User: What shape does this take?
Amino acid sequence: MTFCIGIKVEDGLVGLSDTRVISGAEYFSAPKTTVIQREQHSMFIMTSGLRSARDKALTYFNDMLTAQDKKFNRLYIAVNEFAEQVRRVRMEDQKALKDSGYNFNLTCIIGGQLEKDEEHKLYMLYPEGNWVEAVEDSPYYIIGESAFGKPMLRRVLTYQSSLEEALKLSFLAFDSTRVAANDVDYPIDIVYYKKNSYSIIEKRFAAEKLRPLSNWWQNVLKRGVARMNSGWIKTITD
Assistant: This one.
């Protein structure tokens, strides 16, 4: 499985993806985030699903960017083009996958800002090639193991949250998922985009670097449970 999260706040975008890949009984690490940076073309693509479909769609998309880069001046145009490549891969590989007992599966989070975009954008692209855009009332997307990180985000995250707060929450959402799901794990890749900067920062973190944060959060939860008002429990125990 996979954990990828993209968050859009007023000041920019953050994204986080795990790198665990499972092939049969084998575990290994591979990036699930691709950053495309060309002058005022700044975007990232996160993927969950078949690795082969991801690699093929990205190869086709990069060929299109190389041949027609100036055509892509707004992010939705680039998203539409990537969607076409996902559909192309689906048409080429779906029968062979089905014959082998697999279903075509590729879901993506795409974020960034191109030269004609008035602001930074965040989209989720479905395997069928249709997409939805993040808005103020719904400023994030999670693909892969999506259930375990949502409670934290729903309680705390708003469109007015700072980029630093968004990064913290993305990590806590990942950490909650990592504890609950064996197929989500370190290292993690983080992308950071400040609005109108046209520059995406990308950084990888190993478990050893962030383990103190995980331990701190676990202790916060333990102390919170201990301090929780227990008056309502006494109505049961008494």
Notes: The longest helix spans residues 75-99. The chain is about 40% helix and 30% strand. The first strand starts at residue 3 and ends at 9.
